[in-house]
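Below is how a single chain appears once it has passed through the pipeline. First comes the sequence as given, then the structure the pipeline wrote out for it. We keep one example in the README because the format questions we get most often are answered faster by looking than by reading.
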Amino acid sequence: MAPRIAPGTWRDLGPINWMIARALARAAGTRDGNLFTTLGRHRRLFRGWLAFAAHLMPGGVLARRDTELVILRVAHLRGCAYELDHHRRLAARAGVAPAIAARVAAGPDAAGWTARERALLAATDALVARRDLDDATWAALRRCWDEPAIIELCLLVGHYDLLATTIAALRIARDRPR
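Resulting structure:
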């Protein structure tokens, strides 16, 4: 499907957003950075979104490996190939072996997860499916993380769900790897 909003050019984004988008694409290992050049068309919102996103990843309190497991799970549940493309590469950099990244698709009940990983993935599933956590899932999270980490987890899941929605609605094209 063709993008509903084409990725912006230097003129559309302005010099600051253009440089930011190019740097982010390079850091992600892609040639295009279509998410960044599309969202960058809303110049002011783009920078606010980036600041928020950076507090979650890579600047959050959750371990990077945990963050990537959550993002991969959200991307799988939402069928978001764009997020999967990017975060498989980023997950590998964060120490998530390809076999573990592939196992994320099987969900929290798959063999091989630790209790901590199972709690993380079960909470992700619940937040995407029901927008809430039942008491058992909450208790499992509390055994593993403190309150700031759980707040961040909820925001992380919501943020990548929001991105999957935006990517789908705007028909943002997948990037070409470098």
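Residues 147-170 form the longest helix (24 residues).

See the next section for the split statistics.
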